[in-house]
């Protein structure tokens, strides 16, 4: 049992650094917070967490090794992910300015997305990232023993997913605080232009990612 505890500690030590590193997931949650509000951002966070369980599931089953060694599969995943980030970027560039709330305790934009759409946005953004394939494959290969039961490894995944969701919920709450959100709303369309360029830049970075 102590072996599994130390394995989990090792995984979380590395994973915690990855969680707080800005990337497409972070940019998406921030944008959801500013444009659509806390509810949308939190649901998006759960989508990202579910996608992490998806990555860990195929890593544990050994499918991640197949993808990482197949240039064709890796490229398909890479270009799909880049295309989706380009799509998010163009959509952000064309979107109207975020709406400023008027005298409410929490920012509640009139424009809303369905819960399912928010969840899928989070899931797809994370799922189509081939770097996640390499990250979890290398992380589990280095820190988890081959003798560790699959159910225990699945438990690691649940803990990691919970930590990721908790982090992005905290991000959602912070960026939907009225004092914080109002500063971004004050940028008007510049907020959309900046986030659009960020998504497109992340797409270009992803498109140039090489399997290793």
Automatic annotation (TrEMBL):
Q: Name one GO cellular component term.
A: plasma membrane
Q: Which residues cross the membrane?
A: 6-30, 42-66, 72-90, 118-144, 150-175
| Record flagged with keyword Magnesium | no
Tell me how this protein sits in the membrane: Multi-pass membrane protein
> What keywords does the record list, in alphabetical order?
Cell membrane, Membrane, Transmembrane, Transmembrane helix
Cited Pfam families: LysE (PF01810)
Q: Which GO terms describe its molecular function?
A: amino acid transmembrane transporter activity
Q: Where in the cell is it found?
A: Cell membrane
Highest taxon, organism lineage = Bacteria
Q: What is its main location?
A: membrane
What InterPro entries does UniProt report for this protein, alphabetically? LeuE-type (IPR001123)
Q: Which PANTHER family match?
A: ARGININE EXPORTER PROTEIN ARGO, TRANSPORT PROTEIN
Official protein name in the record: Lysine transporter LysE
């Amino acid at each position: 049992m102590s072996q599994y505890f130390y394995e989990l500690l090792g995984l979380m030590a590395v994973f915690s650094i990855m969680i707080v590193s800005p990337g497409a997931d972070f940019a998406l949650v921030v944008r959801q917070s500013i444009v659509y509000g806390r509810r949308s951002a939190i649901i998006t966070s759960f989508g990202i967490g579910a996608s992490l369980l998806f990555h860990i599931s195929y890593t544990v089953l050994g499918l991640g090794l197949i993808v990482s060694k197949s240039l064709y599969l890796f490229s398909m995943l890479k270009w799909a992910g880049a295309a989706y980030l380009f799509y998010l970027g163009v959509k952000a560039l064309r979107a109207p300015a975020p709406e400023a709330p008027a005298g409410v305790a929490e920012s509640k934009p009139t424009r809303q997305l369905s819960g399912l759409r928010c969840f899928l946005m989070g899931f797809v953004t994370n799922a189509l990232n081939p770097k996640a394939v390499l990250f979890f494959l290398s992380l589990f290969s280095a820190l988890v023993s081959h003798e560790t039961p699959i159910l225990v490894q699945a438990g690691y995944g649940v803990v990691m997913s919970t930590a990721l969701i908790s982090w992005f919920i905290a991000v959602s709450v912070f960026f939907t605080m009225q004092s914080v959100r109002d500063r971004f709303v004050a940028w008007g369309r510049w907020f959309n232009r900046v986030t659009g360029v960020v998504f497109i830049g992340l797409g270009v970075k992803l498109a140039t990612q090489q399997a290793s």
